[in-house]
Amino acid sequence: MTWLSPLTGLMLAAAVIPPLILLYFLKLRRRTQPIACTLLWKKSVEDLQANAPFQKLRRNILLLLQLLALILLILSVMQPQVQAGQQTGGKTVIIIDNSASMSATDGPGGITRLEHAKQLAKQRVEAMYRGGLFTGSPGETMVIAFSDRAEIYSRFSGVRQQIVAAIDRIPPTHGETRIGEALQLSRAYTTNVVDIMGEARPTGEPAHIELFSDGNIADLADQVLRPGESLTFHEIGTSDADNVAFAAISAERPFDRPTSVAVFASLLNFNQHEVICDVQLSVNDTARGIREVTIQPARTDPTTGELIPGRNNVVFAPFEQPRGAVIELANLREDALMADNIAQLVVPPPRQLSVALVRSNYRILEAALDPEGMRLQRLDVLTLDQFEQLASDGLLDQYDVVVFDNQAPETLPPGRYLTFGATPPIEGLNEFGTGGSQLILSTRVEHPVLQNVTLDDLRISEMALLQPRDDVQILVEATGGPAAVAVSRGSLHLIHVTFDPLSSSWPFKRSFINFIYNALEHLGHIGEAVTSEELRPGEVLTARLPASAQSIELRTPDNITHRITAADPTQLSWGPIRLAGAHLLSWTVPGVTGSSRETRPFAVNLLSETEGNLAVADSIDIGQDSFEGSRAAAASHTPLWPWAIALCLALLMVEWWVYHRKVYF
Amino acid sequence: MASFGVTTTSRPKRVDELIDSQLMAKLDQVDVMSRKIFSGKLQGERRSKKRGMSVEFADYRHYVHGDDLRFVDWNIYARLDKLFIKMFLEEEDLSLIIAIDTSSSMDWGNPSKFVFCQRLAMALGYIGLVNHNRVSLYAFSDAGLRPLPNLRGMRRTQEMGSWLLNQPTGGASNFDDAMRGIALTRQGKGVMIVLSDFLYKEGYEKGLRYLSGGGYDTFCMQVLAPEEIDPGKAGLAGDLRLTDIEDDDVAEVTVSSGLLRRYKENLDAYCGKLREFCVRRGMMHLTIDTATDLNVLLLDYLRKRGLLR
After folding, report:
1. d(CA B162, CA B172)
2. How many distinct helices (H) and strands (E) make up chain B?
3. CA–CA dist A58, A36 (Å, integer)
4. Rounded to the nearest 5 degrees, what angle is found at the Cα of A199, between the Cα atoms of A198 and A202?
5. Can you give the pTM of this predicted structure?
6. What whole-number distance in Å separates Cα of residue B177 and Cα of residue B168?
7. Cβ(A538)–Cβ(A354) under 8 Å?
8. B78 φ, ψ (degrees, to nearest 5)
9. How far is CA B221 from each of CA A275, A359, A580, A606, B44, rounded to the nearest angstrom?
10. Is the Cβ of B172 closer than 8 Å to some Cβ of chain A?
11. Cα–Cα distance between A217 and A616 in angstroms, integer?
12. How far is CA A617 from the centre of its chain?
């Protein structure tokens, strides 16, 4: 703080303050008043011993107020000025939010929130390191950027250029906003952890945190400031930013048309008004169609105060796509955040199943599993010994489903199995005898295996009686107990029919073929989405490439190609993913692909309701503390005399009110 | 402002100024009620635990040799051919003791606390005399204990009134010694009413402990002037040197809303503490504003609190 005319103020103070105090000495004369008992008054009065001159003044609120008003008046005459953004020593941590919502282009002049935050942070640093008469040492500053994870861009440094350069290096990401890791990192550099009796104690000086964010921080409720820490919240962005975002996208190959693809998506409207969007479907960068979608306005939950966005779905009817493709939906309406206006999917080509049949002499199941009729890639017929050999060699992975025709192996390794007759050796299927003639009592018709399967007229002459454990799902219940059950334990998936089809009338029914088809489709595609792995920003991209793959590269949506050096290409991983959009992995295999590169696309989508909501928080609550957002930029000389005058006037009003209450109440 | 708390009304000179005929007529229907039933000395009009001679039937018992044949129920004898004795509730008199604080602090307030106590004591004593109770009055200050013991019957009303009119005020209360004196000289058991402001710098606890024995059903009536209950409303303001009229103790105050608020909090706490002290020892505590109408106090308030019926 600097003073333009300190001498005038000091002279004025010398002239007016002593007379005021003297007036109060003269004023204190008391009138005698007889009273019944002073007992209660003595308890109430605190200035009973007010005989000494300064004790008389001790609690005189009027004198205090008048003195304060005079001092403020004198200070205003001295014309104080202050450097905004001043910092005197200590440690400062600048934490900048670079999550997806900070890519919104509602900053001044159409720049992104992140760019605006970086500008403000740099102004802050400039103000801190500018120097001044009373500023003293500016201390050290650290720079951290955070989205779903935090990254240090500059450790504690007192060099202004280094700090500014670190701020400039912070890139945008499309991750979610989580501040916990950033706070931990800042503490790690301000705390020398001493483990005494298992308790970590900070021995360093706590830092002042300067947070530049739009305030939509997912894990804020879990955070708490440590003793000595302080925080300034710089509010970035505007509350009326326009945004419509994709909330979900999925694709499906219809049951009866495996070479076609239907696409479904859900859109969220975060605006307070209804919007109409044009959603364009592209397949391998070729536009296939446009749908117009009207989305209701967002509303505020009256009980929680949370913004509930308007929601609508868009469906693109099945279109022929027998090969794999990159499917992209684009919301053509422009808004503040473009990253959530595109959603992509990588759809692999339809897959046919490989099935093994373990049978004895009867061929009824082999006939039913006709590869052409069942659309199988291949059907291998095995004996029980061959199965055991494959299982011991670990070669069962080549089959999507193994069917047992009244055969029971010694053990059942993880895999997908359809078994008839003999009870498979797994826990939870306890056989306790054989039942005679059976009728079907009930079927779980909603299960996919029992779609179009009618068992009302099924007659069973002999059936194994089972006592299933609680985690066994009963699909068909006969008079003697379960006739078909489903078991799903980790990577073991089993559908078991408790009777041999030859001991029933089932082979003569259409439901027999439908059941087998359903069971193969269900087991063969368990855990397999029609699309390839769906990724979000912040996650790690993993791929299984040929062991001899070389020259592996990944092109990210910002058109930067990253070379990946992998010791084992069969277990390739890269991450974390920072941006939403199409990532293209490419590699070469010497002797197989020649000079041409194999490619595999990965779709990364920002399907986040939290980041889509661009409303700016006016304040943030950390633990018990609430921090109001500050929109002030850093640093210039600010005159304080108007504030002093205003405060002086306010004090005079308070003084008048106190005097009035004391005299007249 | 100069008249803050100073009594402006003159003291009553005659008995009919203490209690007028209209109030007496109303009080004829009222009786003092004790929450405890004590045995008296003379046969009176009060229900006793003992069986005796009243007209109120209590029970039957078999006749034994030596019983008074006048109490045999001959109707039952005619029906059952057995002798039964009718028993009746005994009625006894009640001791009513009224102790009045005549210290200087009581002669303060507008209306005066002492005048209010004179009238209240007169009315309560009159109720006692009308109902053939044994009424004793005591005035106490540091000048000593002045008794008027054992009045009985309406014809002693004038004597009681004259005694009340002639009581001087002055000095300190000397509450402990006064209560000790009353406890030592008491005759029989009954209802004890203490009329005072209970603002004793030496404390009231020791004095009240003398009364907390099994002998009395004690009512502590704390009489306070409006100037003591709400001094701000009564006009106390400014920078003052408050002087205690009993011991000339001085308290210098600058009256402000905060000070008045604290004073009221202290007064509430003081009265609450006194009430708690009384309740713990089986006594009844009442705080009475001297601005209260005596009719309302006697015929409504004290009835609800169980002193009168």
Report:
1. 23
2. 11, 10
3. 28
4. 140
5. 0.47
6. 18
7. no
8. -65, -35
9. 78, 107, 85, 80, 26
10. no
11. 10
12. 17
CB contact B64 to A (< 8 Å): no
Check: CB of residue B305 under 8 Å from CB of residue B251.
no
Q: Give CA–CA dist A151/A212, Å, rounded.
A: 15
CA distance B160 to chain A (A): 27
DSSP A58-87: HT-HHHHHHHHHHHHHHHHHT-EEEETT--
Long-range contacts (CB closer than 8 Å, 24 or more residues apart) made by A159-162: A160/A125, A160/A126, A160/A129
Rg (CA), chain B: 23
In chain B, positions 231-250, which contact chain A (CB-CB < 8 Å)?
232, 236-246, 249-250
SS3 state at B272: helix
Q: In this structure, what token pair is assigned to residue A275?
A: 């919007």
The answer to whether the CB atoms of A50 and B252 lie below 8 A apart is yes
Q: Which chain A residue has the Cα nearest residue B268?
A: A40
Q: Which of A307-316, A564-573, B46-55 has the lowest mean pLDDT?
A: B46-55
In the predicted structure, residue A37 carries a pLDDT above the cut 60: yes
Cβ atoms B103, B150 nearer than 8 A: no
Neighbour tally for A46: CB within 10 Å: 13
Helix axes B113-130, B157-165, angle to 10 degrees: 170
B6 touches chain A (CB under 8 A): yes
Cross-chain CB nearest to A34 (options B245, B252, B257): B245
Token pair belonging to A198: 């298992």
Q: What is the pLDDT tens value at each position of chain B, 309 positions in all?
A: 446 877 777 888 888 888 888 888 988 888 887 665 454 444 444 544 444 555 556 678 888 888 888 888 898 899 998 888 887 654 456 788 999 999 999 999 988 999 999 999 999 999 999 888 889 999 999 888 999 988 888 889 999 999 999 999 988 888 999 998 888 876 667 889 999 999 998 899 999 988 887 577 899 999 999 999 999 888 888 888 899 998 888 888 888 877 888 899 899 999 999 999 998 888 889 999 999 999 999 888 888 887 887
A22 CB near a chain B CB, below 8 Å?
no
Closest-CA distance of chain A to residue B116, Å: 15
> Which of A233, A195, A194 lies closest to A216, judged by CA?
A233
Q: For residue B111, is the peptide bond before it cis, meaning its omega torsion is within 30 degrees of 0?
A: yes
Of B113, B240, B263, the CB nearest to A33: B240
Instruction: With beta carbons under 8 A apart, name residues in chain A contacting B266.
Output: 40, 43-44
Residue type, A563: R
Which among A33, A35, A47 is the nearest to B254, CB-wise?
A: A47
User: Which residues neighbour B296 within 8 Å (Cβ) at sequence distance 6 or greater?
Assistant: none
Distance CA A531, CA B244 (A): 96
Contact (CB<8Å) A48/B244 = no
Task: Tell me the two tokens of residue A136.
Answer: 């003293």
C-alpha closest to that of A212 among A272, A307, A122: A122
What is the spatial distance between Cα A79 and Cα A2, in angstroms, rounded to a whole number? 8
Write the residue in B108, B240, B245 that is nearest to A31 by C-beta: B240
Question: Please, which residues 539-578 of chain A have a Cβ atom closer than 8 Å to chain B?
Answer: none
- In sequence order, which residues have a C-beta less than 8 Å from that of residue A251 and are 6 or more positions away? A261, A262, A263, A264, A327, A345, A347, A530, A531
Q: Is the ipTM of this complex over 0.90?
A: no
- N- to C-terminal Cα distance for chain B? 42
List strand residue ranges (DSSP E) for B104-215, in order: 134-141, 144-151, 190-196
Q: How far apart are CA A507 and CA A521, in angstroms?
A: 19
Among partner residues B109, B237, B259, which is closest to A44 by beta-carbon distance?
A: B259
CB burial readout A422-432, b (16+ within 10 A) else e: bebebeebeee
